[in-house]
Amino acid sequence: MDSSKANLGRIEAQVSMDMSYDEETGTVYNGTVQLLSQKTLRSHDSFQIGGGGAGDTEPLPKFPNKLILSEIFTPPGEDVQMTPETFSEISDGRKQSLRSNGTPISRLKSYEGDSVLHLAAAWGHLELVKEFVSECPCLLFLPNSSGKTPLHMAASGGHTAVVETFVEMVTFASDRLCTEESEREMLNLYVLKDNDGNTPLHYAIEKYHRETALVLVKANKDAAFLGNNKEVSSLYMAVRTGWLDIVKAILRITSKEDLELKKFNFDSKLQGKKYLAHAALDAKSLGILDYLLREYPSVMDERDSEGMTCLSYAAFIGYYDGVCNLLHRSTNIVYVCDQDGYFPIHRAAEEGHKRIVEEFIKEYPCSKYLLNKLGQNVLHVAAKNGKQEVSIMLMNNKATEHLGIGQDVDGNTPLHLAVMKWHYRSITLLANGNYILKLRNKRGLTAWEIAESEMKPNYIFRERWTLALILYLAHSKGCTSVKSLTQPSEPDTKNNRDYVNCLLVVAALVATVTFAAGFTIPGGFNSQKPNLGRATLATNPTLWIFILYNILAMQSSVAAIGILIWAQLGDPALISSSLHVAMLLLLYSLLCMPLAFLFGVITEIGNVKWLIAIICIISVLFFMLAIFVFGPHVMLQRDRVSPKYTGYFLVTFMQSKEIFQFFVDLITKIFCHNY
Predict the structure, then answer these.
(1) What value does the mean pLDDT of the chain take?
(2) Could you give the 3-state DSSP secondary structure of residue 655?
(3) Where does the chain cross the membrane (predicted)?
(4) Residue after which a domain boundary falls, among 192, 208, 230
């Protein structure tokens, strides 16, 4: 009897809601969520099974003439472990052993606490579901070890016919109750939650069973407003899934209801997350967004867990159509910041959504002057987050280029922030004038002084690249005199040992290949006197060049091997000086080796002019790429780099890399678009 009371208490707790709305009278009242009104109850003599085919009428289930609520929720007794044979039969849609073993079906449980009705509902066996409910109605409300009822299982599996059958049976059972209307309300199976707080409708939407969800919504709309343990309601899930018909079915109201009453009713019933416009933007569904904002305009003012308005969120995720839709609805929302002090245009710039930033500036020119709580404009935000495309667009626009000299509460310009975050790709663009380079923040530091003071002593590529670029720009524009673009690095003995070993392997491979190439020269060797064993094309000038580059590549790599062996002794100073020399020699050998190969090929096919022209063009492009790949790495390793030629090389590389990036993106799109 104690467990029976517990079950009754569980049902009462889950069906209770703060407010409910009477559609006929248009009044709001306290109480419980009603399952079905007396007007919608079916006949006592028969009921229609929705999943069994249109118009099919089944005989009455074997319910008693009068049902007592306590009997429906009374536990069936001590559980009996289900045998594997019984489990297998139910999974196949049979129940022969259940009739022969004599154990009441209401007491059989699987290892996971599932009753026979749970299993039949999970596998979608409609006939078994009918028989089990007719023989033991209490199974309909009996939870398993996870708190799921059979309706949870059927909804999760998307068995629409089974769900429709449950709806019909609950309706029929509620009509057969012999006591008060309040007891019929206890049969609200649709609002029962499992251990995670999910109703059956939660699972139907989560598993993308659209028809099943629609059946549950039509049976009981109020269940869609209940939140689970994560504060997510079925309505929120339906919006985020993008199911406009489900959302309309849940929110459909009478025409007599005015706007204030709708808002009050909506806010009082909806549990958990209320920012439905954000969910519609996540689903990229303008249909749902329009419907929500038309019926419930207050949704536009809701903020998510990060304090973002729906416009800020649309700008943050880069949903251009959603941003345009919201901009045409309201002007004030453009000037509403989130809890971090960011306006919608800042969120777009933060994520690099150039098109949306352009839309804000075009529709609301004043938005470019908006400052966040740190006093940062839109260019500050783009530069700080390394969004190069947005920075380029703003600096190349005459209406917004002045933002480059704006200073935040700490006196930092966008260039200062880009240097602080080591976003070297934006530096050449942001440092477009002497005035910007000379600006100091409240600590009295220029951009290059920040780079020099904050750069770590060990080698980090992006930091050294940033320092070299900003120093070259300051030197070339006459802002300061620079003797070197780099600073000496402190070698890390442990990590450098692995690095030295890698260089040793590369140098050894180059030496091996070039050594072998010296004895397999193009054209072969003479087999007759007086030039026996000599090269056949010894008088060919291209062969001379081949041999010259091959010797230089081999000797440079051998010298690099010898120097790198010294670096293995563990002396930090010796490691640093050895790497400076070895890296130059290895770079030289890696450039000489492809040149030797080029002239060797020319020697072999010297009579085919058009092929030589094509090979030369390809080799020149490769040679430039090789210099761009290896050059910066070697230059930035050194501690005394001339600002004149090295800086010009680095800036040229920054300007040319976009071309290489275009080809890389093109090749990726053509050959790797499916991966």
Answers:
(1) 80
(2) helix
(3) 499-523, 543-567, 579-602, 608-630
(4) 230
Cis peptide preceding 530, ω within 30 of 0: yes
CATH of the domain at 77: 1.25.40.20
Q: What is the reported pLDDT for 440?
A: 93
User: Residue 46's pLDDT band (boundaries 50, 70, 90)?
Assistant: very low
- The string of pLDDT tens digits covering residues 646-666 is 787 777 777 666 666 666 677
Query: Is residue 15 over pLDDT 50?
Result: no
Largest CA distance in the chain: 124
In Å, what is the CA distance from 483 to each residue of 521, 581, 601, 636, 654?
Answer: 46, 20, 43, 14, 21
Number of Cα atoms under 13 Å in the Cβ half of residue 557: 24
Cβ contacts of residue 296 below 8 Å, gap of 6+?
A: 251, 262, 263, 266, 276
Considering the domain boundaries, does residue 499 fall inside one? Answer: yes
Among 230, 261, 291, the domain boundary falls at 230
Nearest CA to 179 out of 273, 94, 69, 253 is that of: 69
Beta-carbon count within 10 A of 145 CB: 13
Tokens of 601: 């090929």
How much of the chain, in percent, has pLDDT values that exceed 90?
Answer: 33
Q: What is the mean pLDDT of residues 285-299?
A: 91
Residue 456 above 50 pLDDT?
Answer: yes
Q: What is the mean pLDDT of residues 503-523?
A: 87
Decide: pTM greater than 0.70: yes
Q: Which pairs from 627-635 meet CB under 8 Å and 24+ separation?
A: 627/591, 628/653, 628/656, 628/657, 628/660, 630/587, 630/590, 630/591, 631/587, 632/465, 633/461, 633/583, 634/583, 634/584, 634/587, 635/468, 635/486
Phi, psi of 659 (to 5 degrees): -65, -45
pLDDT of res. 50: 38
In a domain, 288, yes or no: no
Burial 381-394 (b: 16+ CB within 10 A, else e): bbbbbbbbebbbbb
Residues 6+ apart with CB under 8 A from 328: none
End-to-end Cα spacing for the chain: 61
Residue with tokens 């007891």: 183
Number of Cα atoms under 13 Å in the Cβ half of residue 594: 16
Token pair 């009713």: residue: 265
Neighbouring residues of 214: CB distance < 8 A, sequence distance ≥ 6:
245, 246, 249
Strands 108-109 and 80-81: parallel
Report the SS3 class of residue 101: coil
Which residue range forms the structural domain that includes residue 508? 493-638
Return the DSSP state at 42.
P
Radius of gyration of the chain (CA): 38
- The CA dihedral of 21, 26, 28, 30, to the nearest 10 degrees, is -60
Measured distance CA(5)–CA(13) in Å, rounded:
12
User: Does residue 149 lie within any of the structural domains?
Assistant: yes
How much of the chain exceeds pLDDT 70, in percent?
79
Task: State the total domains in the chain.
Answer: 2
pLDDT reading at 517 higher than 90: no
pLDDT tens by residue, 361-409? 988 888 888 999 999 999 999 999 999 899 999 998 888 888 999 999 9
520 found inside a domain: yes
CB count within 10 Å of CB 467 equals 23
pLDDT average, residue stretch 559-588:
82
Of 20-34, 101-115, 626-640, the poorest mean pLDDT is in 20-34
Q: Name which of 349, 486, 467, 460 is nearest 419 in CA terms.
A: 467
